[in-house]
């Protein structure tokens, strides 16, 4: 059975485009590698080199090829420059996880919210996934505010939910259902 997934190109609001990763997206991987937080919560290398950056991009391709999930570059629709990453990871019981990061130079422009709205409607309507979930640390107000603006509903606090940077961290849990789409 072929379990490969196809990562499509999805136009979003706010001049954003979700598209498959390309090897010419190394600049955003390098910027993300220099961020103190992104390498802790993603597979972005903490010690950047072009070899490590290319390996990161190839891992994004393999996620779809292996049927694990969809990893998109969040790109500027005007110049096609990658600004971040968003992924949709289908799991058991009709649920999928969503995760995202935006490079520091692109923050504060509504990019995460636009990407979340797009991937959410695609996952709920096109892929027919009944429930999307995401987890955000309570201190990360920019991230949870983007989730709330995109229509995700905070369901609670999961104490000691995830290990990040060698310590257990609390996480807000958010969900979105088809009926939540605005």
TrEMBL record:
Coiled-coil regions listed in the entry: none
Transmembrane in keyword set: no
Pfam families: Acetyltransf_3
Keyword Transferase: yes
Any one GO cellular component localisation term in the record: cytoplasm
Keyword terms: Transferase
Stored InterPro entries: Acyl_CoA_acyltransferase, GNAT_dom, Ribosomal_N-acetyltransferase
Residues covered by the N-acetyltransferase domain: 16-179
GO molecular function: protein N-terminal-serine acetyltransferase activity; protein-N-terminal-alanine acetyltransferase activity
Signal peptide region: none
Identification of the protein by name: GNAT family N-acetyltransferase
């Amino acid at each position: 059975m072929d379990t490969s997934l196809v990562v499509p190109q999805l136009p979003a609001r706010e001049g954003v485009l979700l598209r498959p990763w390309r090897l010419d997206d190394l600049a955003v991987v390098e910027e993300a590698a220099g961020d103190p937080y992104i390498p802790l919560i993603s597979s972005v290398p903490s010690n950047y080199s072009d070899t490590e950056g290319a390996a990161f991009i190839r891992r994004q391709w393999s996620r779809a090829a292996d049927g694990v999930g969809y990893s998109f570059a969040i790109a500027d629709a005007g110049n096609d420059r990658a600004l971040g990453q968003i992924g949709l990871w289908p799991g058991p019981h009709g649920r999928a996880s969503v995760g995202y990061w935006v490079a520091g130079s692109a923050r504060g422009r509504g990019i995460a919210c636009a990407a979340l709205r797009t991937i959410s409607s695609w996952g709920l309507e096109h892929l027919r996934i009944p429930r999307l979930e995401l987890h955000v640390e309570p201190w990360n107000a920019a991230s949870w505010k983007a989730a709330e603006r995109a229509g995700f509903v905070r369901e609670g606090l999961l104490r000691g939910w995830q290990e990040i940077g060698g310590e257990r961290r609390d996480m807000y849990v958010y969900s979105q259902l088809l009926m939540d789409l605005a």
